[in-house]
Specification:
This protein is α+β, with helices and mostly antiparallel strands. Helices cover about 20% and strands about 25% of the residues. It has one helix and twelve strands, in the order αββββββββββββ. Strands 1, 2, 3, 4, 6, 7, 10, 11 and 12 form a nine-stranded mixed beta sheet that branches. Strands 5-9-8 form a three-stranded antiparallel beta sheet, with no helix packed on it.
Length: about 270
């Protein structure tokens, strides 16, 4: 058979070369797309982490600024001074992977009620000018504006709130772990009647912060009970490897510069 003049076409070799070139171009384009998508995901993850850290930082800063408001020391349900809750407490990490535990408490006036002067009040129920938004289950700080009892308070759980005049807040016993019969935790703070016109109930804020022990991911946790209720730690953020806390104390009569800052009183 003779080849006809002018006959043309694509050979198998040319087809294979074209397919190879298209495959290389497609692989290159796909690789760029994968890297770009990965970069976008990484940026989104970093942005989300930064936003979370800002939110956590704002929460901790707000707590630190309010700490000690209404009472610098709270007596707890068992009336034992060894379990008093102070405005700021630091539990030092003894070693290993973990961090210090920061514990804070303060009164939040978004829920606030006053016991009127000469009202008939008991350790289980207090007449108030208004219930102040309190609901059963809320923790309250009972503190006094009496100048002789400033900075002292006890903690109670509200068991009932009656807004109908005469309004009242109940804080009867059996609200474990906070209340007890006749609430003896308040005896040292208010040994006489509550009805001197100075007693105030404010919403109790108890929080503790720590890095989860033994978890190398660096999980920052918060306890909404200030560590008083076991295993109520809630994760807030990941990637925080440690948290170290120091308390700076004013000692006006101190003459020894213990921390080496040049000021013996601090």
């Amino acid at each position: 058979m003779t080849r006809r003049s002018g006959e043309s076409g694509i050979t198998m070799v040319e087809i294979m070369v074209a397919v190879l070139l298209v495959s290389i171009a497609a692989a290159f384009t796909f690789g760029i797309q994968v890297r770009t998508s990965g970069a976008f995901r990484d940026q989104a993850t970093v942005a989300e982490l930064q936003q979370t850290l800002r939110a956590v930082s704002d929460l901790m800063v707000r707590d630190l600024r309010l700490t000690g408001y209404r009472a610098l020391m709270l007596r707890t349900a068992n009336g034992n001074p060894a379990t008093d809750i102070y405005a700021v407490e630091v539990q030092n990490n003894a070693g290993g992977y973990g961090s210090d535990v920061l514990r804070l408490q303060y009164g939040d006036d978004t829920k606030l009620a006053h016991v009127p002067n000469l009202a008939v009040a008991t350790r289980d129920q207090s007449p108030v000018d208004a219930t102040g938004g309190f609901q059963p289950g809320d923790l309250a700080i009972a503190s006094s504006r009496n100048p002789t009892k400033l900075n002292l308070g006890c903690i109670l759980m509200i068991t009932a709130a009656n807004p109908v005049p005469p309004a009242s807040l109940s804080h009867a016993g059996a609200a474990t772990p906070w209340n007890a019969p006749n609430n003896p935790q308040c005896d040292d703070i208010f040994p006489t009647a509550w009805n001197d016109g100075y007693l105030t109930f404010s919403r109790a804020v108890l929080r503790s912060y720590r890095i989860r022990p033994g978890d190398q991911r660096g999980v920052l946790e918060m306890s909404p009970s200030g560590g008083a209720i076991a295993n109520d730690w809630t994760p807030l953020a990941v990637g925080i490897v440690d948290m170290q806390v120091a308390i700076r104390v004013e000692q006006p009569n101190d003459t020894t510069d213990e921390d080496g800052d040049g000021d013996p009183t601090k």
